[in-house]
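---------- Forwarded message ----------

FYI, see the PiggyBac transposable element-derived protein domain-containing protein record below. Original note from H. follows.
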Amino acid sequence: MAKSTKKTKYYTHEGALALILASSEDSEDSQYDSEIEEMFKQQLDDILDRSMSKDSDADWEPQSQTGRPPAPTPTEGGRERSHSAATSATSPAASPTATPTTGRSRAARRVRGRGRRGGSRGPSRGPSRAPSAVTGEQQWRDVGDDDVEPALLDFVPMREPGPQQRTRLATSPLEFFKLFFTDAVLDTLTVNTNAYGAKRHDEKQVVWHNICRADIYSYLAMVIYMGMVKCSSLLDYWRGSRLYSLIFPPSVISRNKFLRISRALHMSDITADEENVAKRGTPAYDRLCKIKPLYSHIVEACKAHFQPGRHISIDERMVASKARISLKQYIKSKPTKWGYKLFVLADSGTGYTWNFFVYEGKSPGYGKGLSYDSVMSLMDFDLLGTGYQLYVDNFYTSSHLFLDLFKKKIGACGTIPANRVGFPKTTINDFTRGTPRGAIKWIRDSELLFVKWMDTREVVMCSTIHKAFTGDTAQRRVKTAGAWEVVHVPIPAAVKDYNQHMGGVDLSDALIGYYSSSHKTMKWYRTFFFHFLDIAIVNAHILYQQCQRGSMNQKEFRQALIEELAELGTPSTSRSSTSQVAAPPNPAASHKLHYLDEQDEAKRDSTGRAGRRLCKLCHRKTPVGCSTCGVPLCFVATRDCYNEWHTQQGM
């Protein structure tokens, strides 16, 4: 059999081109659906491995989606794609019948990919995003350029600023305090504490003795007292040694009752707690269920009894805690770095805490970011009204937030980072190296004013209520020729007002921190109870100053409140409450061993069985004790509790 010879067929240039066009037009005879698929099959890149015989930027333009002739020639296809991309870049609105494309974003990605892998080939001639009015057409203006002063928003609060009419009926510190801790709140606290205490003691097979509202008064008086008189341990307040010997604590409440209430203190219904625990892991689970009753009431009371002035501020507050719970947050810039985070709206002039919420680790619910949602949640527009001026730091400031507040007739001012979305990106006439102190640059974009001020470092502000420069100056100490002198440098009005009105939350934190009632506890929700108590006391003191116009400071206010709460409390059953312990000149000779029942010696037999009590140290029965300390102590050959106990007490 003769072998068949394979003949090679050669084509001219014109014939090969005609064959390519014919094969591309007849797509049914091709095994590839497109040129891109064929290149992918050959492990070639659609962008980088195209023919570079005519290096044109048209090859980098986005391919049109539909309606183009199948597989055109490279030259014709490049022209058509370039025309389509230019049309989409210059025409912001597409035809109603046209299919929307994403050519512009794809082109941007491809240009970036080309720059990384193929190197730079000069300025891009493809389509690009149209410059905005701020970044392309505007530039940073100097302090001498004229700025349009924004119209001052009319201040129309829903109520008269300051304490409300019902609030002004109170006269004493106790009456102002009971605006927040009302009788209904104390009764709820008593019922829930009794229920939790009974449940807790049933598990330990110990009888729980119910408490009443008067016991809560005594307990609150003692907690506030502990904020003023600090001891390292709770037991030190009832110690009878020379180093302590505090008369007030045992006269108000006994040590055992105070500790019993502290262990059982509960703000929520235990039935609601059990139902909430069953919802753990579902969206219906409430992480703040155990503080919700008191938490909600304190927030409503803060808003009901006071109307803020025109200037308000929003900031975070940290409640110190070392609890191992997911609610705990970390803020590096705060003095208290670890603890529970609260977002607080406070009056800038008085430091009154008007609204707050506890951060649970998620946004309040507007869906526009934590900073935006926090501000909108705290701004109760129905109670505030219009014309307020809000001051925030760079965590909250954004052009989107400020414009939305301006639509609600609320002005805003705050520091802003230069990389925040909406901030002008232009560098024309911007600060340069060596810019002197006091230099000011600004840009106005409709209602928004962006201003830069050079102090020891650059300060960047955004505001909807200020003019760029109003002629204000600030004093700064500078060193000239080896000597310090005070100079006056220009300062923008936005920076000056920000420094004056931003500290509302910081002032509130300082007032709370002076005599904070918080102390160590094993339960996370009791930390919130002590903080709510501090908020109530500080706000009550501010209301007292506003209504009474008196000169009573916070320390005197707390002292008076403690005395009034102690008078309403249950008389103490503590044995040390009626004894006056004086420091003898010779402590070693002051303690004397005696029989506990010296009044009736006839009842005491030779073994000393009559009149026995439990030893303070070993809790066994003994007929003797210390006459000075008034405590029973064993004094036998096998148990020398008398000397051992005095040694432990440092006597």
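H. also flagged this: Residues 524-548 form the longest helix (25 residues).
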